Amino acid sequence: MNGGPSGFQNAPVSRAFVLASGVLTIYFGIQGRSSTLGLSYQDSFKKLKIWKLIASVFAFSSTPELMFGLYLLYYFRVFERQIGSNKYSVFILFSVIVSSVFEVLALTLLKGSKDLQMEVLETSFPAYALIDTPIPVNWNIDATLNILTSGPYGLIFSSFVPFYFDIPVSTRFRIFGVSISDKSFIYLACLQLLFSSWKRSILPGICGILAGSLYRLNILRIRKIKFPAFIASFFSRLSLPSPGITPPTTSSRNVIGNVPSFTGRERNNPIAPPVFTAEPPEESITTLVSMGFDRNTARQALIHARNDINMATNILLESQSN
Question: Where does the chain cross the membrane (predicted)?
Answer without folding.
Answer: 12-30, 50-76, 88-110, 143-163
